[in-house]
Fold this sequence. Notes:
The chain has 416 residues and is mainly α.
Amino acid sequence: MPGLGIRPSVESYSIGLTACAKGGRWQEALVLLREMEEDDEIKLDVVAYSAAITACANGGRWQEAVAILSDMPNVGVRPNVISCNAAIKAWGEAGQWQHALSILRGMSKAGLSPDAISYNTAISALGVAGQSEQAQELMSEMSRLGIEPTVVTYNSAIAAIARGGGGQWRQAVALVKHMSLAGVTPDSITYNSLIVACGKGGQWKQALSVLKGMKKQGLSCDIIGYSAAISACGEAGQWEYSVGLLAEAKSLGITPDLVAYTAAVTACADANQRDKATFLLKEMLSAGIRPDAAAFTSLIAALGHDGQWTQAVEILESMPKMGAPRNAMVYNALITSWANAEVAKGEEEGGALLLGGASGVGAGAATGAAGDDNASAAQSRSIAAQPSSAEEVGAQQPPLAGFNTNLSSDQQADSR
């Protein structure tokens, strides 16, 4: 505008800053804000600062967001609810949940009334950090203040439980039930987090029941929910259902991602189903997905459990051409494999080989993906031969929404 002989007004800057906020264009927002500060004829207002804070928060620049909020009183601009909410978001996304709570508490002291967005953003910060108790305390506080929780509120609290300890899964189920009683409709995000919580609590049957309940309600099942269910079954030693869920997702047109495949590979490897785990690794490559170190670590550990030292080394050596990094966890699994093999001869040579290779961890791995053309017949068996649906197990549990949360003691024992 100055190049056209037109002097920008406060409104012009505010519009530009708002556009930057929506796109997370924090650098441009800071430039505009500094221009306003340097123009003696422009009166700075809270709208401009709030938009700049939001731009930094949406751009993942929490340091800049907090610096702007701290600087506002120095220029005579009083923060409002919007600017504080943006700062809470910035702190939360940086994993600094204590600071996010500090801003929330400071709002009341500054004479500001936190709104639903303030609480939702703070609860979301607690959810990311797995601070489930504090998240639920904030929900209770909202009710005391007459602020109605939204689906975002509930989802954030359930996510906090899901990231916390496995013993809290009943609290997640109770929150979903409370949502319905409060007239708040659960969505796919709600149920995906609930599946994770059930899985961490060893309730794999309950996790499958949630997945089945989503279908009955016509909710969209995505790979996030399937990945969570695959992990829940795998952690309970139910590798057949993990593989079956992977196949089921593909049959529904849901494309498995790295998380889903890794969960299935880990489930098979942990159950000593090495051929199936190897097959899934190759299937990942065929699908254009490069396995990460976690999948290989599980497979190498499984080989080590059976003393298959040679095969474990072959898996390690195949990682670079599959584009997977070889980190300390992989070498630790391989060292365990070597120990379990109880090699009678060449122990020193083997140990030196391992330690020498491990010293190069972090140097990087070659990229590219190339399959092993010498797959055995066992490795080539189709996963379609495995159970391909969770319906049988899901039918044993009442679908969780309506959702019957009163599991009998026998059902709880069976779910572990």
